[in-house]
Amino acid sequence: MAELRKDPVCDRWVIIAPERAERPSEPGRPPPAPPSGACPFCPGNERYTPHELLAYRSGDGPDGPGWQLRVFPNRYPALRVEGAIEREGMGLFDRMTGVGAHEVVVETPDHRRALGDLPSEEIARVLFAWRERLLDLRRDGRLSSAIVFKNQGYGAGATLGHAHSQLIALPRLPRELADELSGARRHYEQRERCLFCDILRQEGAAGERLIVQNGGCLSIAPFAPRVPFECWLLPARHHSSFEETPDGDLAEVADALRETLRRVDAALARPALNLVLHTAPLNPPAERNLPYWHWHLEVLPVTVRPGGFEWGSGFFINPTPPEEAAEFLRKVQI
Question: What is the spatial order of strands in the sheet that 93-97 belongs to?
Answer without folding.
Answer: 12-16, 3-7, 93-97, 87-90
